[in-house]
Write a structure and sequence with these properties.
By secondary structure, the protein is α+β, with helices and mostly antiparallel strands. The chain is 45% helix and 23% strand. It is built from 14 helices and 17 strands. The strands form 3 sheets. Strands 3-2-1-6-5-4 form a 6-stranded antiparallel beta sheet, sandwiched between helices. Strands 14-13-12-17-16-15 form a 6-stranded antiparallel beta sheet, sandwiched between helices. Strands 8-7-11-10-9 form a 5-stranded antiparallel beta sheet. Helix 2 packs antiparallel against helix 4 and helix 9 packs antiparallel against helix 10.
Length: 522
Amino acid sequence: AGGGGMVREITATRGVNNVRPTSVESAARLLHARSGGLYLCDAARRLLTVAVSLNQVRDYAGTVLRYGEGAAGAVAVSGQPLIIDDYRVWGERASIYEADRPFSAVVCVPMLWKGVVTGVIAIQDHAESRKFTLADQQMLAQLADHAAIAVENARLYESLQEQLVERGRAEETLRAANNLLQRVLSSLNEAVIITDPYNRIIEDCNRTFESVFGYRREEVTGKPTSILHVDEAAFVAFRSFLAKWDVVADGASFEFVMKRKNGEVFPSEHYVTYVRDDTGRQVKGVGVIRDITERLRADQREHALLERATRQRMLQQSSQQAIRALAAGTGLEETLGLIADLATEITQADMCTIQLKDQADALVLKAVKGLPGESLLGSTVAADEGVSGVVLRTKAPFRTSDLQSEPRYTLLPLAEEQGIRGFCSVPLLLRDEVTGVLSVGTRSDRDFTAEELEVLCAFADQAALAVEKASLLAAQTEEAEVTRSLLEAIANTSSSMLDLPALLAGLATSVQSVLGCDFCVI
């Protein structure tokens, strides 16, 4: 519960500069340690920089280490966690800390984002008796994964905020331009045309107009404004659209599609107003035109980033809820069924299969959801067969948007019958060993996203732990049942016989029966 609260604290923090210290403080509290640090990686220059220095003998923020230097440098190179019982006597310690030797027990874990080490979290303890354990390392690694996601989300949030602020400033500037003269003077970087308001003839234009539309000034002077439109129908629609606006006072602002000299069509923003004489008669029409192609592209990128962030947040929340639900599982069959249910829910998939590795390194089908494949439960796939075998051997996920065209897929003939197309398989990893393969699929052509794959892999890691826990519990239960049966059989035999040879023969028969062996010798 404490770890979950820390994860929520980290992921709820906005701003990169806030996420970093929150991550280290949470990690130190989680491991009951006093000090720690966070290093950010520069993969291009192979350097690490201390971004957070928590409760150390002095502030090491800004300190730079090379890849491979010290504990953090070693983790940045290998991507693997590291536990050091006494850093002061460790042979590969960083020389920059040699004068202070500020800590003894150290545990370092990488911050992984899409399989790349983006940073390192190090937690230290000064107590002579303190030794970090593998459990400490695993808890810190889980927290580091959330910290890496939180840092990336914070960077994304800050980028979006900057774009929104910049866009707001641009819109405010546009609204501030409220009269013709100010508009013309401030439009040196925008296309400006002067027209006859009655005949729609171009009388003049500026240099920006030439660069935007591709016409030279002499090419358009005296020509109708219709040459700037996609076709005659678009020109008529533009005039009808303009007639709906009241341009007597401040002018009209709107967007419309225009055409360059080379025939290229582009989106544009227009500001249209009229110059009037003393009687109020329109004598000149003034049009200010801005090419908004890049702005619309930026809007689309912003929308895509927001959608991605929202989807990622939903996936993370679903995964966290699923992991909490797994903790309540008991029996192996119940746990596997729950894993299949949660996997399909997280990924919005139509089917799910779970295969577990047996003692011969073959994959045995243990659970099926969404397919009428109960009769295939217990069927095996060799380690060198099919997509599952590829995942088993490489320890890497597999995904395809069209399973039917994948020649290596040999798991379930029912998948073809049921029309499964979008497909994703991830390894069940336990202490870096593959214990099974979790697969999900859809009946539609679907390419699982990198975010979905990342969340499914994280869920699979937790599922592997739950399967191990359920298997151990089942083994303990079976062992206890055998022991109980054996004791009962021996008690019944010994209490009913007084003759020693007959007693021993009865005991041997009871042991043979309970254990299911071929013979017993006393």
